[in-house]
Amino acid sequence: MFSKTDVFLFYSFSLFYLLNANLNSANLDIARQFKVLNGYPLDSQLNFTELATEYGYTAEEHMVTTEDGYILTIFRIVRGKNCQGPIRKPPVLLMHGLFMSSDLWLDSGPGAGLAYLISDECYDLWVGNVRGNYYSKRHTNLNPNTIEFWNFTVQEMGSYDVPAMIDYITNYTSSDTINYVGYSQGACIYLIMCSEQQRYCEKVQVAILLAPGSRLTYTKSIPFRLLTALYEISAPFLIETGIYQALPWGGIVQQLASYLCKDNITADTTCRYVLDKLDSPHPDSIETETIRVLYGHFPAGTSVKSMLWYNQALNVDDFQKFDYGPVVNAEVYNSATPPSYNLSATTNPTVVISGRNDFLSVPPDNEWLVNQLPNVIEHVVVEDPLWNHFDVPWSKLTSKDILPKITDYLYRYSKGGRG
Fold first, then answer.
1. What is the pLDDT along the chain (419 residues), one digit of tens a residue?
2. Considering 43, 124, 279, 358, which one is annotated as catalytic?
3. Where does the UniProt annotation place the signal sequence (predicted)?
4. Is residue 282 among the annotated active site residues?
5. Is residue 111 within 8 Å of 105, Cβ to Cβ?
6. Which of 119, 136, 184, 414 is catalytic?
């Protein structure tokens, strides 16, 4: 006889299995054509180059191959539509957060999306995608349907993905350096790169870290804590049944969210409520139309193993490498416990921009990070007391609340163009 606990776990894992399952790519193409004709906002169905083109921006698509064989898609906006002067140097690399892709920088439209706004300031803008999201699910040798492909965390993103992008951008543009803008996980993997591959850190003239992810000890988001804990519990079941991705684009969660949030009323109520619970409320910050669009691109997927790292990060008072357990740790790290990342290796000028109402990258963890880094030239706390984590990519207030500081520091560490 099965106990009530057995039955509960069976149905819970079955539901979790379905929520993490991916849909057939051919069916997704058909579904996309169907959606445009059935009430979905067009912007939610467009990819990065299509979105940029729709608003008069010219975007290029580039392929970058990492040292360990992952093929990443990155995008470039050489000149913003509203750029009237010469292009400033060096190029700027803009990196997304967890479960996100390059598209988030366009979701809120030309008046608020950072990809539009930064390129309009005459910067040669490159927008990256890390391994595992829907733009970067190819490999020179590994099959994306195998566990070997998904055997990565932020460690590999920082050690391989960002260095490969820097190499590609500097080689393609004949520039010795870049400037870096990283949001949330995008800031986290930059710090990992500096710890593990410091010579690449030295190629960055200034790093601007937006709501940075590093130590996550005091994260207030209960849903995020529950989500990572559920992955920790269910990982053996998921892996045994061949599910190695977490919340993939094209999966049931993303498709259902896209369907529900296409409606104005649902977007402004239920879908806004989900964002508020994952982070914190900020009334009148994110437009309803932006919510209708963003769920067409979010969540964009990552590895189950990455979610295990996040669960570990939420439960330690440190910023450290993946914890395999004492036995494997001893083999991998020559220590029973995983080592901490070397934040003192981030010696180049660094700017941190954070919010008081951020429930994911919270003030105590940001203060801790600032105190660990050796060359923070400014820690900017956004004046708006309600500024939160999801405001960075999606708020209509971006051009007022964070763009001036971003462009101020990009300009200080750039040449050419207008001041």
1. 444 444 334 444 444 555 565 554 444 444 444 455 478 999 999 999 999 999 999 999 999 999 999 999 999 999 999 999 999 999 999 999 999 999 999 999 999 999 999 999 999 999 999 999 999 999 999 999 999 999 999 999 999 999 999 999 999 999 999 999 999 999 999 999 999 999 999 999 999 999 999 999 999 999 999 999 999 999 999 999 999 999 999 999 999 999 999 999 999 999 999 999 999 999 999 999 999 999 999 999 999 999 999 999 999 999 999 999 999 999 999 999 999 999 999 999 999 999 999 999 999 999 999 999 999 999 999 999 999 999 999 999 999 999 999 999 999 999 864 33
2. 358
3. 1-21
4. no
5. no
6. 184
Place of tokens 């437009």: 287
φ, ψ for residue 58, nearest 5 deg? -100, 120
Annotated active-site residue 139? The verdict is no
SS3 187: helix
The catalytic position among 96, 282, 297, 389 is 389
Sign, CA dihedral 358-198-181-43, equals: negative
Q: Is 181 helix (H, G, I), strand (E, B) or coil?
A: strand
Catalytic annotation on 119?
A: no
